[in-house]
Every structure is written in C-alpha cells, then in structure tokens.
Amino acid sequence: MAVEYDGTAFYGWQIQKDGRDVQSCVERALSVVANEPVKAVCAGRTDSGVHAIGQVIHFDTSARRGERSWVLGVNSNLPDDVNATWARVVAPDFHARFSARRRTYRYLIVNRRVRSSLLRDRACWIHRPLDADLMQRAATYLLGEHDFSSFRAANCQANTATRTIHQLDVVRQHDFIWLTICANAFLQHMVRNIAGALIKVGLAERDPDWVAEVLRQRDRKRAGVTAPPEGLYFTAVAYPPEFGLPENEVVAAVPDSFIMPLPGWT
C-alpha cells in the first residue's frame, strides 16, 4: 500500500511512547478493515515534521478484501492528514524496506524576502538570496558511492554510512528551490544535513569545494546546520519490476506545480 501524509502534527512514522505517530494511525485503520490486528512495515522511516507522498508499506493479513476496498476502507478510518493512495497484493517475499532499490526525497525551499504563511509547515524559508547554480555545483561532489558519515545524525544507528546517491538536482522555480535526491538508501537526517550544507553554499558562506572536503573528513561536526524538517518530502520508492507495483504511481516525484498556482507568487 502507498501512503501519503502531512507530517506537521506527527512525531514521525515510527510508533512513539508519547506523541502522535503515523504508524499507529495506519495500523489502527488497517486493523479495522481487516477485523484483526495488523502491523505495517514501511519503506523508510520519516522524522518528526517530515511529509510523505510516496511512502510504501507492507502488511500481512488473513483478511480478503479487494484492492479498492482496502484503500477506501483504510481512508475512512484515517485522520485527514493521512491517506492511502493504492493497494496491491504482492508475493510473500516482498518487503517494503528490504526489497526497495531506490528511494527519492525532495526538499522545498521558499527563497524570498518575506515568509510564507501558507507554506510555514511545508517548506524551509530562506530570506537571503540563494545561488542555485552554486548549490548544484556542490551537489555533484555527493553523487556516487561514498561514506556519508559527515551527513548522518549523531545518534544514527545504521551499521554502515556507505550509501549511493544516483541523482541530486537543484532546480529553481521562481521563488522556490527544489532539491531532488535519489539514493539506494538514506541515513538518519542525511537529506536534511545535505540540504543544510548546500544552503550554506547557496548563501556564498562556503565554496562548492567545501562540500567535497566535508564528505572526505567523515565528521558530522564539519557539515554545519541540519535543515528544518518541514521542507522534506518522501516522494518515491522504486522496486524490481517482478513485484508488479504501479510504477507511475510509486516513482512519481512531487509535481513541479505542487505550489505554483498560488496567486501573486512570481
């Protein structure tokens, strides 16, 4: 099943002892539809305040429902800030996390002198001008397989910091800058730490070559500020074709027109 959610009022995907989480909401809704307890496994955990458009989960159940019935039934039992977009029956060896080959995130920056009340929980606001071309030059140093220790959270529990970034694009659209990053997997806070470093380059506080040096040093203290969570969107997961998942829906990125129709924004 694919799930999207507004992460503003959540303390992330994973079940929390205190505080609202996405996983609990989804599992409660699935359990109602299945008429039995259901546990959900996600493709990638998201942190507090982070949004998802293409989160993918799997769950095991003895209940028999049509794919459309799963979606409609789950959505009728979810709060307004979470919903399922599709459901498919998959082979027993499918795993939402371990079967994934690539994951894609996008990070949205509003770059203008005044803040946006409409996007206060949906984007990172930078009031000083950003040079997207400089940010893109810096981003190229991160492509490929590297040890990303400099861009992981201090308490990240991953066994290895080696990851492969397949795509890292920085694109300006009027007052907005999109960072699109696709990798085989991500470390905790990796995208937000990369965004924070690229923002420093875009503000001309650091040269693009500085990002290469930070990567080489493998020291989180060298990378600078972690960008805020509200600009981050988990947009897509790619799986091997033999699982028969709807590719156009699974790998679709955030539309470029996601925030463009707002009046008065040029």
What can you see in these coordinates?
This protein folds into two domains: 2-98 and 239-250, Alpha-Beta Plaits (2-Layer Sandwich), CATH 3.30.70.580; 105-234, Alpha-Beta Plaits (2-Layer Sandwich). The protein has helices at 22-34, 67-75, 132-139, 190-202, 208-217, 247-250, and strands spanning 2-5, 40-42, 51-59, 82-86, 102-111, 124-126, 144-147, 162-173, 176-183, 232-238. With 266 residues, it is of the alpha+beta class. It has six helices and ten strands, in the order E-H-E-E-H-E-E-E-H-E-E-E-H-H-E-H. The two termini are 37 Å apart. Helices cover 21% and strands 24% of the residues. Strands 1, 2, 3, 4, 5, 6, 7, 8, 9 and 10 form a ten-stranded mixed β-sheet that branches.
Topology:
Blueprint: E1 2-5, H1 22-34, E2 40-42, E3 51-59, H2 67-75, E4 82-86, E5 102-111, E6 124-126, H3 132-139, E7 144-147, E8 162-173, E9 176-183, H4 190-202, H5 208-217, E10 232-238, H6 247-250
Parallel strand pairs: 3-10, 5-6
Antiparallel strand pairs: 1-3, 1-4, 2-3, 5-9, 5-10, 7-8, 8-9
